[in-house]
Amino acid sequence: MIYYFCTDARLQTPDDYTLDWDTQPMTKRSWVQINGVLYERGREPVAAGPMVIDDIAPYKSMADGSMITSRSKHREHLKAHGCVEIGDQVQHLKVERPTFESPARKELIRAQIDAMSHAEFKGAIRRFVERVKWNSR
Most buried of the four, 12, 37, 84, 137, by CB within 10 Å? Predict the structure, then answer.
């Protein structure tokens, strides 16, 4: 079989292209090479056997300056100092905003709006829209 290299560095075979230009778009398949053998992406072989994670490298604690030399000591240290390992999961750091659904607050806002002139109200709306635009960038 003849293989062609396309410009985006993916390996292509002649079978990868549909030549019926009017009815179907041109399709592409990508390939990976593992130990000199080509596999279609998504169909490459899975490593046999259990996956083992190495122990962590020793590091100096930022909380108290002690040396942490293993995962178990790392977990114990975090628990002892009330620390949380964040990584890229920050759901627990989100602050819940209080809900201001009280009828007294709504009445206060209505009274403030009723006390405004039309020009003041339009100015307040314009400032609010600008603030939303600025904070959404």
Answer: 12
